[in-house]
Design brief:
Layout (H helix, E strand, L loop, with lengths): L2 H25 L13 E9 L6 E9 L2 H6 L9
Antiparallel strand pairs: 1-2
């Protein structure tokens, strides 16, 4: 295949990706992903079912809303003061 054709196709794919990204940003202006920080916890539930009556698993996780408190959970115990 000719390098010019490959270059033009690459540019066309890049252009479509940029336009699609711009349209997605314009469609939802000011809407940030995630949730607002604050006090308390988020509760995340995870459910699994193997189907056919074979059982499953259900659990919930508590995640702090405060970003600093959330980050502290990733610090190894020997590094904490």
């Amino acid at each position: 295949m000719d390098w010019v054709v490959i270059g033009l196709l690459s540019f066309a794919i890049f252009l479509v990706a940029v336009i699609a990204g711009g349209l997605a940003l314009r469609r939802d202006p000011g809407r940030a992903r995630g949730s607002l920080p604050g006090s308390g916890d988020h509760i995340i539930e995870s459910n699994y079912s193997s189907g056919g009556g074979g059982g499953g698993h259900s659990t919930s996780y508590r995640v702090p809303r405060d970003p600093q408190e959330y980050a502290k959970r990733f610090v190894p115990k020997e590094k904490q003061k």
